[in-house]
Amino acid sequence: MSPSTPGPPKLVEAFVDDLLAATATFTDQFVTVERPSPTTAMEAGTAGGTRSTSGELRGGGTYQLHGLGCLVTTAEGVELDWDWDQHGRITFDGWRVRKYARSRGFEISGDEAAAACRELVEAGRLQETKPGWYSPR
Question: Whose CA is closest to 135, among 76, 88, 72?
């Protein structure tokens, strides 16, 4: 990690802050996210009834629903990727933190991301929802 790179806990904190902002933007625009059947893709629905799996976000950036989650790419190119768990919580793992860091021009190893997430669990900022997966508190 270069001297100008924030330490892993600061990168994870920045990821969580940006993730919360991205999910707020997404949920302000869409009233539903659902998978109509087990064999179809997830769709986001607006109050007006429009349904889509990808597109533009109001205020800039794009979204792409995938598997159990969503990838938001901000207008600045920052990537925020998350899943929803079976309880509807926003969840992420170390790979998503690394993807975010790279999109901001930083490198963080998988071990550093995992250690930083565990540190933030101990500090009460994150909760571990299953081994290696975290949710903001």
Answer: 88
* C-alpha to C-alpha distances, 123 to 115, 116, 119, 129, nearest whole angstrom: 12, 10, 6, 15
In angstroms, the CA 123 to CA 101 distance is 21
DSSP string, 15-31: HHHHHHHHHHHHHHH-S
The length of the chain in residues reads: 137
Q: Where are the domains of the chain?
A: 8-125
- Mean pLDDT in residue range 11-25: 95
State the average pLDDT over residues 64-88.
94
pTM above 0.85, yes or no: yes
Whether the CA torsion 31, 74, 89, 40 is positive or negative: it is positive
| CB-CB neighbours of 106 under 10 Å | 17
Q: Tokens at residue 51, please?
A: 């349904």
